[in-house]
Amino acid sequence: MNDYCRNATRNDEWQSVPFGYGQTGKPFGITFWGQAFIEPMLIEYTYAFGQKVKRRRKPKTI
């Protein structure tokens, strides 16, 4: 858990989006974080960001 998550209060809103893959193929993401009650705006931002970067890919089946 990173410092941002540890320091967050119950009233903070946050959304995470896939951002890419490291050299080993391990996925990583970006988190949009804001004050309480702005979840609709965060959903708009994260959706727009995800559509713009197009980094999401289907997981490999085992």
Helix/strand layout:
Blueprint: H1 3-7, E1 13-21, E2 27-34, H2 39-53
Antiparallel strand pairs: 1-2
Provide an overview of this structure:
With 62 residues, the chain is an alpha+beta fold. The protein has one domain. Helix content is 32%, strand content 27%. The protein has two helices and two strands. It has helices at 3-7, 39-53, and strands spanning 13-21, 27-34. The chain has a two-stranded antiparallel sheet. The chain is elongated. The N and C termini lie far apart (27 Å).
Oligomer: single chain
Strand arrangement in the largest pleated sheet = 1-2
How much is the radius of gyration in Å?
A: 14 Å
Shape: elongated
Compute the number of helices. Answer: 2
Class by helix and strand content?
Answer: alpha+beta
β-strand amount: 25-35%
Estimate the helix proportion, in percent. 25-40%
Sequence of secondary-structure elements: HEEH
The strand count comes to 2
Overall domain count: 1
Largest sheet: 2 strands, antiparallel
Unreliable runs, pLDDT <50, ≥5 residues? none
Instruction: Estimate the mean pLDDT confidence.
Output: 77
The end-to-end span amounts to: 27 Å
Brief descriptors of the model:
2 strands, 32% helix, single chain, two-stranded antiparallel ribbon, alpha+beta, 27% strand, elongated, 62 residues
Brief sketch in words of this structure:
By secondary structure, the chain is of the alpha+beta class. 32% of the residues lie in helices and 27% in strands. It is built from 2 helices and 2 strands; from the N terminus they run αββα.
